[in-house]
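User: Could you check the structure of this?
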Amino acid sequence: MSSKPIQAYPTHGLMPKQDTQSASFIKKYPNYDGRNTVIAILDTGVDPGAAGMQVTTDGKPKLIDIVDCTGGGDVDTSTVVKAVSDENNRAYIKGLSGRTLYIDPEWKCPLGEYHVGIKRAYELFPKELISRLNSERTKATLTRHAHLVDETKTRLCAFAKKHASTLESDPKIAAEYKDLETQVDILKGLKESYVDPGVILDCVVFFDGKDWRAVIDVEESGDLKGQPCLTDYRKEFQFHTFGEADLLNFSVNIYDNGHLLSIVTLSGSHGTHVAGITAANFPEEPELNGVAPGAQIVSLRIGDARLASMETGPGLTRAALHMAINKVDLANMSYGEFSASPTEGHFIRLLAEEAIAKSGCIFVTSAGNDGPCYSSIGAPAGMHSSFITVGAYVKHAQMQAEYALLESVKERPYTWSSRGPCADGYHGVDIYAPGSAITSVPVYGLNKLDLKNGTSMSSPNACGCIALLVSGLKAEKRTYSPYRIKAAVVQSAKSVEDPLNVGFIQVEKTWEYLENYKDHADQDILFEVVVSKRGSQRGIYLREQDETSQVQYLPVTVLPTFMSEHDTEKPKYNRAKFNYEARVALIASESWISAPDYLYLHSSGNSFQVKVDPSALQESQFHYGEVLGYDTTDPARGPLFRVPVFVVKPTVLSNGTIDYKNVEFGPGDIVRRFIHVPEGASYAELTIRSKSPTDTHPARFLLHLLQLVPKKSQKNKRTYGFTLGAGSYASTDSDKEVVTKRFAVRGGLNMEVCLAQFWSALGKHTLDINVKFHGVQVGGSLTTDLGVVQLNPQVTRLDIVAPIRREDAVDVGVSFNKLRKYFRPVDSSITPLSADRNSLLDQTRLYSLVLDYKFKLDAATNITPRFPTVMNQLYEHYLAGVFGIVYNIHNKIIGYLDVFDHVINIEAKGEYTIRLQIMSEDQSVLEKLKNTLCEIDLDLKTVNFNTHRSIGDVFKSKKSTYTKVALERRDPKAFYVAAPLTEFPEEAKHGDALVGKLSFTKQVVDGGHYTAIYPVPPSATEKKKEESSSEKLEDAKIVSNLEEAMRDLQVSYLKKLDTGSDAYKKLSSSIESTHATSTILLEHKIEAIWAAGGGVTQSLLRDSPAPLTVDQAKQISELADAILKQFNETELLAYFGRQKAKTETEQEKTVRKENEKKKKQVVAAHKSKAAAWIAAAVSGEATPEFDRSYEALKQWTGDDSETDYTSLLIKVRKERLANRYGSAVQALQAYISESGFLSDDATKLKRVWELSASLYKDLKWSVWVEYEAKHDVIRVPPNGYAPF
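Assistant: Sure, the predicted structure tokens are below.
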């Protein structure tokens, strides 16, 4: 045993509080621990049952409201029923699942009305929980299934043994044996196709005279007695658990007078962990407490479980409205995406103007985990200067307690922590805080605590720190504003020698600052900086070659911004605006920045000019400085405002390539180089060669490449991770490891090449880096990843040039793998949304535009629906929300859509609907969006277009004549792209488009191709032949056709008359007298007999109130025989048995059509006979009459039960009568596999599913009876379209 003493675990590092001074602050001020503050957590939801989420330090409930802002847990409960009593006088109602739901007699429901709804539990559960439950439930179900297989195989063996002597000689015995074999095969197939349906939840909502309440049948038992009657969580703080298997807690909110139930669950574990950092309270283990254990929490779920916890516009909007209306003290948002705009957006406006400026909420948000490049900050981080944006820092305490490192490394920002500045020059990241913790996670994860890291963890740590300050301010009854708090936090931060001067949060120092300057009213002013450069920017950011190669003179305006008025008729801040003035000294922090000495400032702001001289600055470096504005009456309190100045001078290449030799790395080291991408470059090839010693520690590296393209987000950023020093990229006998990456670039813009050794990766590494640019320009375009080439209908000329260097291996290719179809909405409606959660602070309602799109697919495929005018924007979106759902013809949900592309798997041909909801408070905007175009991309077998040297080659050569070429630098060439003359995709119709790529290399380049679009032209039409005089009908034929048409018309009207009416009898007698043996009249008589028994389908299913009798079957058989006598079946069969010529004369065409009509009538007659005899049979084997009819039918159709519904029902009834249930199920399964989701077949498919379930019941396969019952609700939702 080691002599080294075992020390106590460094628990203080599990939840970092020492370095931020939050622990010492609480020790000094025990009652300022967050109590009397309310923090909103905008995330995946907070588990009220998680460890540390029960009470605050002063005994109050920890979670005081739990809201699902996304709508993902919504249940339509608009169906209203009344209870009835059974024979035991127990009150019950029918649930939408079909279950009988017994009412608890203790419930109070004065109106006696119950709202019912239904929800599949898996629509509520987080993805990782579904994965675990699916595995556990599937295992349990397949165990039961295995018993069925064993039993069936035992019966099969016993049957074979018992009937060994007659197994082959007795057809009946052979058929029974075959059926048992079929049952074994079916069970095998059922196992392979098993999809766990999960729990189907019946939901009941009722009004108890005071509150709306909801009961959910989590046990699927139908017995609701004793189940908790939940009301809106904020009223009673009640929650429940779905079950011991999942341990997922849920609460409810009820909207729209009981017509909408929101079941509030979690879309992941992230939000609970965030809440744990902010405010968890462990009375028994206070060392595990969150930063502000006295604070209360409001959980606002913005992560939608339907989209794997992605945030959506509706969720963000509702969260912002909730914060504003309920006036929470603070909010933490550890969520985000990239934004194409650094400031604009509906959600951003709601936060800044409503939640913060009017309601006083302090909004803290994570910077993002997309570093280490500069300007890698996400959204909403930094999108408004009132937000507090937090980066992630790792301290030694975290390393020791959380990461189990072999060696301690330097404290620093995490490698992946996003950096500023924003694209418009705003500083971006305001503060650093610890970016990891081991704390609370949801119960369903089966862990009490867990480690997570990210700016998602640093933001709630900072938010908790600020909650301590707010708690103290409230306790001392001191006024404050979000602007005052942010200024104090930033001014008091501890320097960590950050290149952009971002400090580390310090609670005690911030408290001292707030105390020292509590009487300064101007601390409640937000000083907004506006730089007039290419529009309005919030800082000075010189990045591109043209602006860093000369002196810049930039107008700057400073605007003092006061808190907004709640009531404009009773303004609070006008007097403060009048009284405000400041005499400001302007100080430039760097010698290359010049500014005036002084600025007089009043409430309307003032402007001055800043000179930036980058001429002497070193290239390929990031330079940062500030213009600081100090109040001359009290400069010690720090600057009133800062004008950030960023300059990046890129290296300009002379030959399109650059080398960096012997670049050294250690743990956490980041090396940045800035390169002006040559005009016309389309992609870059970056090669890294490791020269590290063989005994060095393997290290993880991050390669990040970033260009700032105006109005384009970094969502498709280029980031690569790899390990060096482990022989991963080279042969074991090589002393160099080589990594090569190829990626698209934008010519003419600065590119940061950022390579970092991961913060915790040990060892020293020496690397050589080479960057080489390539480019083939098309038609003068300067871009590849944004370039679109639209081709002409037949031949397109393209001019190309290599602007950077000679390109030796240009490999021209034009290929298409997507078919794009365009759709307009078939229906649109604008309606106000429920006021409960869709109203602004001034009570303005949000409106919903719902657009319906219909489309039909001929085969299973993948589709990508897209709505270009409302997509690819989220935080910068001008709308309040966009959300879509894809349905099949049965209203089953196939997939979900939002503002980003989603590939939806369509498993069967059929008709589908997309319902798109667009939200805005401006109805005029919605009116303009009523005709929003939907484009759907479908998978397509690759189509290649040939490329040719000349237009003549297009028509002379069958293959491409221009593929592999060499392009001299700046020597333009032309070639021609030709659409195929034949073998064009059959599914491509006029108005569609083929979508693919135009490429000039076969090497893999991330995003490095032009998008090629080919609008599909009209197809060629054949010239119609003129009818010759010899083809004109003779008079006798014309008269005959007329008589037939009149007869058919009479019969059609006969069908419309009541069979007992005088009109019917008169018309029927008239037709009988002249056309007694006509096929159409005989068919009508057959139909009339079927109709008397409820129709063919009902008769074959034996669920008609008047089943077909033997006498009726005989009548149908005689009528069918009368039809058949009119045809020579032998001659007709011979005709269809002969091989037909590929081309036919007009006379042959006429004969074919006549024979096809005859065949159709013959088949219908035989089918009527077979159906009638099998429908009339009541038990045992089918009758001889049926056997003869069935064999005669199969002469014509074979076994067409896979595609013909009536033939299927005949076969299933035949097998079922003989107790051959396996063969019946097999027939149903074959029909289902061939069916699609078509409107004409929707009812038939439902009946087939019902038949399958009843046959499983006959077979006593209880596990599959239960399975079908659940899937029936999933396949055909009883309440139609789901809520958005």
